[in-house]
């Protein structure tokens, strides 16, 4: 293989030159949708030649109607008969081609009751879904959709509803407000390592906030920095964030983060979601530590949330699943439990918090 073919293009070609002709000849009356969505670096457009060493190659997801589910085995048999060894010089593993339904596949991946997909997700449901999952399911490409269901759900997941968007931005500003003064305080007493660790957390929060401001889903750590460089604001912010990350001296760390805070504060004001807020940093009380006061941005955003349930949850400041935990297994818990028909524990947690506010 002399050059790398992006996975989305390879799978589109595989659909056009293998999947579609095979199904057309063997099952001409079948209505179906086909796409490349879900897990995989190629779905986000970040695959390289290194990606080809495992779980990569020409593959397509085929979606059929619930009423046609009895034809699943026949579809697989048609696709698995006399499969070519390679396609564009890439080995073909036809068993990576999945035949499913839109409610089954998306309901499981989102960790919600499949019937909610066409009604529209509850706003609290959005808080239980990792942004990486939303990026995977709203990304990729649809190659064909005879049944319409795939396009409908794909479009619903393009981005957060406005109140959820406000809620998540507020939660990240709240995180910044909780720790922005801790980084220089640790450095002030000679704890450069502790200061650097807190700075890394703040840098990640600033970057996460930028994804939200530019209405882009945040990918998981492997592609976090790569995707950040694609944001409009990255060229202005990167020098300050990189200096804050790489310096060995807390004062330089503080100065670089202060510049980053002011840029993001101005970005907030440009959204015109709240009244303009002062974008200058100030000392933290009588201490000579520069902070932006993340809490005031959080409060301003929460005041604009219309949904009463999200307003009640915002009081606790937890945010969504991405703000609550960065544990990979925990983030996948809703999907795993949905597979067994069990209740989403994070949804139960949010519901209990709302009930406590009502009492």
Automatic annotation (TrEMBL):
Protein name listed in UniProt: DUF4037 domain-containing protein
Residue span, DUF4037 domain: 126-224
Origin species: Paenibacillus violae
InterPro entries: DUF4037 (IPR025117)
Any Pfam family matching the protein: DUF4037
């Amino acid at each position: 293989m002399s050059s790398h073919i992006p996975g989305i293009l390879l799978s589109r070609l595989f659909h056009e030159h293998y999947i579609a002709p095979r199904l057309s000849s063997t099952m001409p009356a079948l209505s179906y949708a086909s796409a490349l969505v879900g897990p995989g670096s190629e779905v986000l457009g970040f695959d390289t030649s290194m990606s080809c060493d495992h779980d990569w190659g020409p593959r397509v997801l085929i979606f059929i109607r619930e009423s046609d589910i009895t034809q699943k085995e026949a579809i697989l048999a048609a696709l698995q008969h006399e499969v070519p060894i390679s396609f564009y010089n890439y080995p073909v593993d036809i068993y990576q081609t999945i035949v499913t339904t839109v409610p089954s596949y998306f309901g499981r991946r989102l960790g919600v009751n499949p019937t909610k997909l066409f009604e529209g997700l509850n706003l609290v449901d959005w808080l239980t879904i990792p942004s990486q999952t939303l990026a995977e399911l709203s990304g990729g490409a649809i190659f064909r959709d005879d049944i319409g269901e795939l396009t409908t759900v794909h479009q619903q997941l393009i981005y957060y509803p406005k109140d959820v968007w406000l809620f998540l931005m507020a939660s990240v500003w709240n995180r910044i407000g909780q720790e922005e003064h801790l980084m220089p305080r640790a450095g002030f007493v000679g704890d450069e390592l502790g200061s650097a660790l807190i700075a890394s957390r703040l840098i990640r929060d600033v970057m996460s906030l930028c994804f939200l401001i530019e209405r882009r889903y945040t990918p998981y750590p492997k592609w976090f920095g790569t995707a950040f460089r694609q944001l409009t604001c990255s060229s202005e912010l990167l020098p300050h964030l990189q200096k804050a990350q790489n310096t060995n001296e807390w004062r330089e760390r503080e100065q670089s983060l202060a510049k980053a805070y002011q840029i993001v504060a101005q970005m907030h004001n440009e959204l015109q979601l709240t009244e303009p807020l002062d974008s200058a940093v100030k000392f933290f009380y009588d201490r000579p530590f520069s902070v932006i006061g993340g809490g005031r941005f959080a409060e301003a955003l929460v005041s604009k949330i219309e949904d009463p349930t999200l307003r009640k949850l915002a009081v606790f400041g937890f945010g969504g699943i991405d703000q609550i935990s960065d544990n990979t297994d925990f983030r996948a818990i809703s999907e795993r439990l949905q597979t067994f028909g069990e209740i989403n524990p994070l949804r139960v947690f949010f519901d209990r918090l709302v009930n406590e506010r009502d009492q």
